[in-house]
């Protein structure tokens, strides 16, 4: 049977299950990556498993998120991760070396391999034909130990690209168009596979921008074929031996088909506060802006930076605008320094930041009150920038740079001729900021360094038969993990201290939530559709677990968050009849009747609303393995029992 590219890679890595959409499959993972904000927890869990050395082909630990060292906490986490990495056979990408996804694409990604990362933008690797997926830290820890990674077999969406982009229209505009068409929940349970003659017109960094931001569709991953453009990129990185040609079989059948005519696209922006709230720059008009931030794992490649430098050259940033630029990796930053483009950026008034996530995760550069910020990033969720009432617009580097000069949202097509930027034939290669692990002999003496802010991982308890508790919070559709467990400079340093972190849980929606949970001993959360979209952070499950949340009942879940809830021992349930959502109020007393029996063997459960004298039917969409994990009270208990 003719297979799509994603299906071929899945077939090559299938350990168990059948490739039937929706059914659970188990995959062998070749490579893993972690970043520091999720990594500390992932390595604590890895250590709890008692495995001496990682069993993957390659595992890399990156430090890129918590690089503001406003206190000892982040630096302690870096040392902890470094000591585990060196002892356990993991490469360690030191702070300053760059954003995990950018560096991994440049230096480590291999077409046709599977990559599991404790970060939702791991699909960036799909830009060179990897099957690259984001997951919670615990799933990545299991994969590092050689364990299988389980997902529901996705359906495959074909996005066929026709024609070629016009001047000043960018890869960012392609993914914004896909988001406009499919929405932030349109990709759940799906892999997006790009084909068509337009693919040949896109460089690897452009493809990676598209697969990166496929995370915002809720998709399992996105993937491009591996072709001569991939070969040239790998060769320029001195890694041509990693190349294999890969594409879908002739006659492969897709579950959905979307055609995008690249010739017809124009510069676009995602307006506050969702990545799918997309309009053309022309439609939005010349709004005055306060800030422009260029960088993040979506748009920080050398190609992007060179375009920005060319637009800024000889100009000055408008007086009303603060412009910050964070090149994605040490390779990018060094090349910009050597070819003079960095000097053009500095001369124009750009504030150069280190090669890290920075403002994208609220690590500094929060906008002014009610500020309008244009960002080349992938997420503009409410409050994520660190300023609750700021309005963040997601745009291409071209729109960002042009607007920084003019002081208002600018369609770059008004700038005249577009500068010609080509990919270099050779990138500057210097991996001196990636530490190799200890040899097995050296590792024996290496001591793992635990800072005082590193607290133990919370664990669940085996499931009882009836759970009676109150609704602690009722929220609407599209609640993100940034609502559940916000990040930013004030909170991120506590990612390895769940009790402290819990004070900020759901702070964007209701600041009284943590205290009420502690007073009541926890309870239930009621959510709308696509609950838990966004990041892979398992803290959005571990913290509610610490606060006593037993079950989350919604209209539907995002994939990674549902897996993280199960791993934490919190039951994810959905309404059989969506309108029952409206019948439940915050504070109602609910009972999940015979829930352990239901979890062990049924796809339905009964919810009694004691306050309203009503009963609702709920769905339990769980694999056999997920059922056992929930009965045991989470993955750590389950692994210990087995
Ligand atoms: C994000 O973009 O939200 C993050 C920070 O990279 C997260 C991971 C995290 O919360 O640490 C992600 O996307 O998974
Ligand atoms: Fe870092 Fe932002 Fe990319 Fe997340 S989305 S990995 S915070 S740059």
Task: Report on this structure.
- The chain is α/β, with parallel strands linked by helices and about 650 residues long.
- Helix 18 links the parallel strand 22 and strand 23.
- The chain is built from 23 helices and 27 strands.
- Helix 2 packs across helix 3 and helix 10 crosses helix 12.
- The mean pLDDT is about 95.
- The two termini are about 40 Å apart.
- The site of alpha-methylisocitric acid has 12 residues, from helix 2.
Q: Which kinds of small molecule does this entry bind, naming each only once?
A: alpha-methylisocitric acid, iron/sulfur cluster
Q: Strand share of the residues?
A: 15-25%
**How many domains comprise the coordinates?**
3
Adjacency order of strands in the biggest sheet? 21-22-23-24-27-26-25
Q: Given the helix and strand composition, which structural class is it? A: alpha/beta
SSE blueprint:
Layout: H1 5-13, E1 14-16, E2 24-27, E3 31-34, H2 36-49, E4 58-62, H3 72-88, E5 91-93, H4 100-107, E6 114-117, E7 131-134, H5 137-144, E8 149-152, E9 155-162, H6 171-182, E10 190-195, H7 204-213, E11 221-223, H8 228-236, E12 256-261, E13 268-270, E14 278-280, H9 281-284, E15 291-294, H10 302-312, E16 322-325, H11 330-339, H12 341-348, E17 351-352, E18 372-375, E19 391-394, H13 397-406, E20 434-435, H14 440-445, E21 467-474, H15 481-484, H16 498-501, H17 513-520, E22 523-526, H18 539-546, E23 549-554, H19 559-568, E24 571-575, H20 580-583, E25 589-593, H21 595-601, E26 604-609, E27 614-619, H22 624-632, H23 635-641
Parallel strand pairs: 3-4, 3-6, 4-5, 6-7, 9-10, 9-12, 10-11, 15-16, 15-18, 16-17, 18-19, 21-22, 22-23, 23-24
Antiparallel strand pairs: 1-2, 2-8, 5-20, 13-14, 21-25, 24-27, 25-26, 26-27
Alpha-methylisocitric acid (MIC) binds next to α2.
């Amino acid at each position: 049977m003719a297979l799509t590219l994603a299906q071929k890679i899945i077939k090559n890595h299938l350990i168990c299950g059948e490739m039937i959409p929706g059914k659970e499959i188990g995959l062998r993972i070749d490579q893993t990556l972690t970043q520091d904000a999720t990594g500390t927890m992932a390595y604590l869990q890895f250590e709890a498993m008692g495995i001496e050395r990682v069993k993957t082909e390659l595992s890399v630990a990156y430090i890129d998120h918590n690089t503001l060292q406003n206190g000892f906490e982040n630096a302690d986490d870096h040392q902890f991760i470094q000591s585990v990495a060196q002892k356990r056979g993991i490469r360690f990408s030191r702070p300053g070396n760059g954003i995990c996804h950018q560096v991994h694409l440049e230096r480590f990604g291999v077409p046709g391999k599977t990559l599991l990362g404790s970060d939702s933008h791991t699909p960036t690797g799909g830009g060179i034909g990897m099957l690259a997926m984001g997951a919670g830290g615990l799933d990545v820890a299991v994969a590092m130990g050689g364990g299988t990674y389980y997902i529901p077999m996705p359906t495959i969406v074909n996005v066929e690209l026709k024609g070629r982009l016009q001047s000043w229209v960018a890869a960012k505009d392609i993914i914004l168009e896909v988001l406009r068409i499919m929405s932030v929940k349109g990709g759940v349970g799906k892999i997006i596979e790009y084909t068509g003659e337009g693919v040949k017109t896109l460089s690897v960094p452009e493809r990676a921008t598209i697969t990166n931001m496929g995370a915002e569709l809720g998709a399992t991953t996105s993937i491009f074929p591996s072709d001569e453009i991939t070969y040239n990129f790998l060769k320029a990185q001195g890694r041509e031996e990693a190349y294999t040609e890969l594409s879908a079989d002739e006659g492969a059948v897709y579950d959905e088909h979307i055609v995008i005519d690249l010739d017809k696209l124009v510069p676009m922006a995602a307006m506050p506060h969702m990545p799918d709230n997309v309009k053309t720059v022309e439609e939005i008009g010349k709004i005055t802006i306060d800030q422009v931030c260029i960088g993040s794992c979506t748009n920080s490649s050398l190609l992007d930076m060179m375009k920005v430098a060319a637009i800024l050259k000889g100009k000055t940033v408008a007086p009303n605008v603060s412009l910050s630029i964070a090149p994605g990796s040490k390779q990018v930053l060094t090349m910009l320094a050597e070819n003079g483009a960095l000097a053009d950026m500095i001369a124009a008034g750009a504030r150069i930041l280190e090669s890290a996530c920075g403002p994208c995760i609220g690590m500094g550069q929060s906008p002014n009150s009610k500020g309008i910020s244009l960002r080349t990033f992938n997420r503009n969720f409410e409050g994520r920038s660190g300023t609750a009432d700021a309005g963040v617009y997601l745009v291409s580097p071209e729109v960002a740079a042009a607007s920084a000069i003019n002081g208002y949202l600018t369609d770059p097509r008004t700038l005249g001729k577009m500068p010609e930027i080509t990919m270099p034939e050779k990138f500057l290669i210097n991996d001196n900021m990636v530490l190799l692990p200890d040899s097995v002999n050296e590792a024996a003496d290496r001591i793992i360094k635990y800072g005082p802010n590193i607290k133990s991982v919370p664990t669940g308890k085996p499931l009882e038969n009836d759970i009676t508790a109150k609704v602690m919070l009722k929220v609407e559709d599209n609640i993100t993990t940034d609502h559940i467990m916000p990040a930013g400079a004030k909170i991120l340093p506590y990612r390895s201290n769940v009790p402290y972190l819990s004070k900020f849980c759901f702070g964007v929606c209701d600041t009284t939530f943590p205290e009420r949970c502690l007073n009541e001993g926890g309870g239930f959360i009621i959510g709308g559709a696509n609950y838990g979209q966004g990041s892979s952070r398992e803290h959005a499950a571990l913290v509610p677990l610490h606060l006593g949340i037993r079950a989350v009942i919604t209209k539907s879940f995002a994939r990674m968050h549902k897996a993280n809830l199960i791993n934490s021992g919190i039951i994810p349930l959905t309404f059989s009849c969506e309108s029952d959502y409206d019948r439940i109020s915050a504070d109602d007393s609910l009972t999940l009747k015979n829930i352990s029996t239901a979890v062990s063997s049924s796809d339905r459960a009964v919810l009694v609303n004691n306050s309203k004298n009503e009963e609702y039917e709920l769905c339990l969409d769980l694999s056999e393995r997920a059922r056992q994990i929930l009965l045991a009270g989470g993955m750590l208990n389950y692994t210990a029992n087995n």
